[in-house]
Design brief:
about 160 residues, mainly alpha, 8 helices, about 55% helix, elongated
Amino acid sequence: MKKWTKILIAIIIILAIIQIPVFTPKKNYATTPPAKDIATAYNVPMNVLMNLNNSCYDCHSNYTQNYYWYYHVQPVSWWMNLHIKEAKENVNFSEFADYTPKQAAHKFNEIQEQMDKKKMPLKSYLLMHGKAKMTDQDYKNVADWARQMQDSIIAKHPEIANSK
């Protein structure tokens, strides 16, 4: 056998082995109620909450709802699991009530910036999740709300504005 044939066979065998379900990461779905969700600690208008649920929560919460067929193909599920983990490290709407006022103000500022620049949801995510697409008005609504929340926190905790 030629060297390339052996390499191809080895790759096929490895890909077949990693498809065994034992190698699939645990899904991002908590069974506990979302007691620390952003909506429990902050006033989130229904239209903004719907945008967050439709466009953000799959990656930025403990409750990923949509695991499509491709999640069960390795190494895609590893990549998606890493992506969700990193997204939750940036902002986790399910744990938002645990953020200190300073952290929350910073997170609201980041949300506002991401919405102003229309950087979220990621274009790669939108390829397979058309329902997550936001309109210009949706981006504006979420950005304006995040700015208001940040301003509200700073008004209650003026020391935060001085510590930037």
